[in-house]
Amino acid sequence: MLDLAQRIVLCALLGSVYASCPPRCECSEAAHTVKCVSRDLRSVPTGIPGYTRNLFITGNQISRIGPESFKGLENVTNLSLSNNRISEVESNSFAGLRNLRSLDLSNNQLAVIHPEAFTVQNQSLRELNLSRALYNHSSVMDLASSLRWSSLGTLRGLDLSDNGLIYLPSRIFSHLTSLQRLQLSNNSLVSIHNSTLSGLERLEELDLTLNALKTVSEEGLQELDSLPDTTLLLLGENPFTCKCGIEPFALWLNRSQGRIRDAEDLMCAFPVSMRNTSMLAVGTLTLGCHQRNAGADIALQTSYVFLGIVLGFVGLIFLFVLYLNRKGIKKRIYDMRDACREVWEGYHYRFEIDSGPRLSQVSSSGDM
């Protein structure tokens, strides 16, 4: 009889656990995991068990996340919302997830990100994945505001790869004082400037591979030097243009080899004559640029001086010839003056003759 009672209680417990699992989701209390994968969900399902620590709601048709989306899920530590169609994340959407440590929003279409979209109580969030998540370039401004206002002082890893980013707003990471890993690979970043990397006092790894960096300006080099000495950099697969002016960057690469994980793999992409040349060798190969330019400047200055001397000499000869022919020139000027005077007097005389008949006709017309 006792065994039967125990079985009934066990069945009841199992039934309650099964009943608490949302439709079209899979729940495992033993693994503290709930999966709602590719179920064509339009919103976050209700009735998710309170024991859930790992929540996967991926590959659905969810378009919006709000403060009501995750109520009663204080135990969730890992939340994946990847491969949905989320376009808007409201402020405090994850505030109730007091133990949230990892948030994955990759492969979405975030167009509107509210200022406190990533705020989590207790500042427990450690990893934020926004790879392939931004809808367009304008959403990066919303992201910058959210990173400032969402109290992410304990965030350790941020993934912004594969977003087509052309630029990053000034001081976008300045409030992420505990950030250790920043992934910016496979974007379209053309430069590092404007205090983009300000505030990253504990950064350990910065991935800038597969961007559009042709060189790094002196301002960008200063920003990279402002990072902690222990920061490892990745710069591969960028279209470095090895022409005059890249020497400071090439020299910096040689000086900073210990920090650049792929330093030996960095190659020139342009011009064609320098393609596949190691960037570490560019410093010694192109240092003659300035020497050649200096030689060209000297040659050009010499040409200008020589041209000035020639022109001055020609001018002196011309003045000397004028001086020798001053009497003849004077006579020609007088002759031209007399010829002009005769022409003018002839024209005046003909005008007076032609005007006589017209005047007589006018007077006779008046008499009539």
TrEMBL record:
Pfam families the record matches: LRR_8
Key words of the record: Leucine-rich repeat, Membrane, Repeat, Signal, Transmembrane, Transmembrane helix
Domain (LRRCT) ranges: 238-290
TM spans (from-to): 304-324
GO cellular component: plasma membrane
UniProt domain LRRNT: residue ranges: 20-54
Protein name per its UniProtKB record: Trophoblast glycoprotein 1b
Organism: Sparus aurata
Gene designation per UniProt: tpbg1b
